[in-house]
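We now fix the convention by which a protein and its fold are recorded. Think of the row as the fold of the chain written in a discrete alphabet. Here is one such record, which you should read through line by line.
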Amino acid sequence: MTVCPKCNDLGYLYAGEDKKTPPSVSPCTCQMKKDLIANADRGWKGISHASSLKQSPLLEKVDKNMWITTSYAEMRAHMRYVAFRMNPLWRFYVYTDVDLMTAWLGSTALKRQNIFDSDVAMNGASVSLTMHSLVDLVTPPELLVIHLGVKASRNSATPEVLLEAIQIRVAQGKPVWVFDQPNQPFNYTHIAYSEHAESILQEFDREILKSKVRPSTMFGNSAKSSSSTPTSPAISSSAAPSGGLSSIRPSEETVESQQPVERPAGPPRPSTGQDDGPIFKVRPPKKKSKPTFR
């Protein structure tokens, strides 16, 4: 790990010193870079490792409500672009529809009541200890991004919970981004769909981002090269015989040696003039003789 030549890994630089005022410092560029990466990963885990983009239309709309349709990898790349160009103290959070249901059922978990939701039952208690209600989850961030399409099990309250989360942000005047994916569009087939929520989203700024990120980089793995697949070895011209195809034909001796060898038959079996029947005859069991007593 290299040491910053400007601040020697102190994280700040002395801006100047005067006899009447205390010495002033300014943050070093290396520390600002660390703060930006930490802030981006806090808002969406691992987003600092997403693909980099040269530009994004979302940067100018951080204070507006938006309905975004794009792929998972493309959205992470755009959020990385936006987070790295904002202040390190800028607070944004990306929550899934499972997180919304977990916060909504948080009070139920604290009361030790049964939770009839397979997506929430596993992690409901751990999240509910910090988020006692849906308001505690969606209110604090400056920008809330709701990721739809993660919840798989059906719950009759899912559409109402999503609608309530959107209405809370709109009522407080804070921006909210709702993004779905092309393979799971937010329509009547979606698990969290409701006509009221769709009518609100239609009033948001609409953005459909075409996927520019390769699908192979969605989970952080680079595309495998074609050379990794096993192929048949090629025969070089130097290794081939000079006589062409005729020179690699098997000779007559080789063909004859590969043919099955015929063995001479044994002596003929003597005939009795009658039907001999099968070659192997089953002999009847021998009769046991009665023991004699002398």
